[in-house]
Amino acid sequence: MNQTARSFRSTLPRFRQSLLVLLSLSTLSFASHAETISVQHAQGTAQVPIKPAKVVVFDLATLDTLRTLNIADVVIGVPETPYPKHLSHFQEASYTRVGSLFEPNYEVVNQLKPELVIVGGRSGPKQPDLAKLAPTIDLTVNQENPVSNVDSNVRLLGKIFDKEAAAEAELKKMHDAIAALKQKASGAGTGLIVLTTGGKMSAYGPGSRFGIIHDVFGFKPAVTDLKESNHGQAISFEFILKTNPDWIFVVDRDVAIGSEGQSAAKLLDNALVRKTNAWKKQQVVYLDSFNWYLLASAGLTAMQENIQQLSDAVSAHQHH
Amino acid sequence: MLIHPGSNPLTSSYRLLLLPTIFLLALSLISISIGVGDFSFSHLWADNDDADVWQLLVISRLPRTLALILSGMTLAVAGLIMQMLVRNRFVEPSTAGTIESATLGILLVTLIAPDTPVFIKMLVAGAFSMMGTLVFMALLSRVPLRSPYLVPLIGLVLGGVVLACTTFVAYRFDLVQSLHAWTIGDFSGVLQGRYELLWIGLLLALLACFAADRFTVAGMGEAFTTNLGLNHRALTLFGLLVVSGISATVVITSGNIPFLGLIVPNIVSLLFGDNMRQSIPWVALLGGTFVLLCDIIGRLIYYPYEIPIGTVVGVIGSILFLTILFGRRNRA
């Protein structure tokens, strides 16, 4: 009796141990049985699970697209940054802050144990490091062919989250809007894209980060020899007067310290700019700097809003 | 009775000033003639009704050239005053925490009350740069200075700490790019009505000229100054007020122009020694010339686009600075 009791006592832990091993084995096999697909992203291919429920997103354009496709509830971690209006609910405390737009907080990401991490644009270069923690895809939009990049990104997200029909519908909406804008813009005259910050200005041309205005939406560039540069070319007011564009598209970088376009309008309101066609015809458009600057107009809603703003601006003047 | 020309070193050096003055004026004409708009001097007097050329001159070209000369002159004088007060050749507003403090002031006032008039912003910037410079002086009086190189090092460290705070605030409020625009000097946005604060800087520099002899005395030390019956403390404060005011007007109008207050007074002192009354017009003229020249280069290299003057001065200035540094070492 004593012996049996002892043997029982000694077998109990062993039994418990084997049970644990069994359990862990079953979870392991369960995990490996979860469906994954191989996807192509900006920096290669990655194996990602289908319909992941815990996603960390560093790219605002992707957040925008996920929200537009009604799959934002899978997001658990977002970057610490100012958010545009239509993404403001990501500011809520229920979303874990996982670093800045540029620099992930790897500790926090690791603790969240995400099933998928999405980077893009400013966070794009961190893909290889994040890939060591979780499957990570880079959805950076290449400025050379932004629209086809948005297409493939939206389709990819649709595939991963099983929302392919919704993705196609949104893309069709976008392409229709672009075609309509293109038609209006082609006869609207020349345009110059100006970014203002701290009382200084720089110009952007086709192929630049805001070049979609010329390359895709079809506004004729007022200057054709602008070199591509991520930070534009420093220009003077005389330059604006000399090129005399019919449209001035302004990205006000100082929007954080005032309301939209206010500081830029103050900067541009001077005797030289007042003599340009754009000013005389009231064709100075203050672009939504969040949509253009932070999202690089690569999210579905941002893109739609940008097209809408330009389209409205052109129609307002065609009726005159 | 005839005074032989050249017998008085002061009058002879004033006479020598004619040449650099002419050079500065010539550069000004070149500076005025450069720009993207259609402008030429012959058009001004041509018999046509083209008011545009005059407008371009008055609104854009003249203000820019004046702003350049004013900033160059005043910043160089500010550097000279600081070097006299601290008795160290390697001190100027951007190696003493002055400029960085002014920038912090501008950032804070822009964040808290963005619609504040520029003049008030300048006063706030001036107050901040004054405080920063006072901290620098207080640090100097507490640190045993075994080497003259230690003084600017302390200033650079202080400036670095202030800049770190500024960058942190700017980063938090997504203003890092605007901060860059304030810290790197650039005259591309100068127009009539947008540079006039610089005249206040000139006024301060002129005041300093009148007190030039006193600064020379102050440069010989506190005991010496007190022996001559001058109030060393008041003189130092006045000097700092001038320096802070000038730094604030320049930073708020165009952004910082590095090295200027350091190189120009050093070149002048190599030529004429340390009599401030004698060297002040030279420092002012050379400062204006240097800034004009750098801006012309920045506007031509990449025409019709511009390279900010802060970048041009940074490149040319650092080379000149190193040359002076090694030159002085060899002489000593």
TrEMBL record, chain A:
CDD domains: FatB (cd01140)
GO-annotated cellular components: outer membrane-bounded periplasmic space
GO biological process: iron coordination entity transport
UniProt cross-references to InterPro entries, sorted A to Z: ABC_transptr_periplasmic_BD, Bact_iron-sidero_bind, FatB
Residue intervals passing through the bilayer: none
Keyword entries, A-Z: Ion transport, Iron, Iron transport, Signal, Transport
Principal subcellular localisation of the protein: other
PANTHER family cross-referenced by the UniProt entry: IRON III DICITRATE-BINDING PERIPLASMIC PROTEIN, PETROBACTIN-BINDING PROTEIN YCLQ
Record-stated family: Belongs to the bacterial solute-binding protein 8 family.
Name the UniProt record assigns to this protein: Iron ABC transporter substrate-binding protein
Organism: Cellvibrio polysaccharolyticus
TrEMBL record, chain B:
Signal peptide residues on this chain, from the entry's feature table: none
Membrane-spanning intervals of the chain: 21-46, 66-86, 93-113, 119-140, 149-173, 193-213, 234-251, 257-273, 280-301, 307-327
Pfam family, one: FecCD
One MF term in the entry's GO annotations: transmembrane transporter activity
Location of this chain's protein in the cell: Cell membrane
Family statement: Belongs to the binding-protein-dependent transport system permease family. FecCD subfamily.
Entry keyword set: Cell membrane, Membrane, Transmembrane, Transmembrane helix, Transport
GO biological process, one term: siderophore-iron import into cell
Gene3D superfamilies: ABC transporter involved in vitamin B12 uptake, BtuC
InterPro entries in the cross-refs: ABC_BtuC-like, ABC_transptr_permease_BtuC
Protein name: ABC transporter permease
Chief location bin: membrane
Topology versus the membrane: Multi-pass membrane protein
Domain of life of the source: Bacteria
Gene Ontology cellular-component terms listed: plasma membrane
